[in-house]
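Open question from group meeting: does this chain pack into something compact, or does most of it stay loose? Before anyone orders reagents, we agreed to write out a predicted structure and look at it together. Recording both the input and the output here so the notebook holds the full record.
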Amino acid sequence: MYLNVEMTLRINRESAKGPVLLETTRANYAYLQPCGDPGDLEPLFVYQYNRRTPFPYPRCHLHVHARPQHYRGASFSRLHLPTRRITLEQVVWHLIQEHGVEPRRDDWHEVLWRHEGWFRDIQRDRDWPYDRPFDSPGAS
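Structure tokens returned:
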């Protein structure tokens, strides 16, 4: 199993937290499993965040690569299931707690909690916690 993390950051020189702050503009967390030939990977789930999405989907969304037997709609992997902003710490927590991933340190719980707290502190100064899920009507 593999966790693929892709993030795009930008420098915000007008941050309320100080002279310079790095902001995440895009995040993609994909939990992958080997399948078929060696080196072939297939996602179990993919979480995506795009602050300036050009698509008519929520900025924060989840793709689940499964399909219930009696579900008649589009494949779940094609759906954009809306979520709130998810941090890398939350994804790691989920993998340890629910997928049986072995943590690399005994104090993983405290470390993730501390880092998650730093993120929440930064978000307190935002007009909308964790960014608005989609643009308001008429916004470009």
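Observations to bring back to the group:
The first strand starts at residue 2 and ends at 12.
The chain is about 20% helix and 30% strand.
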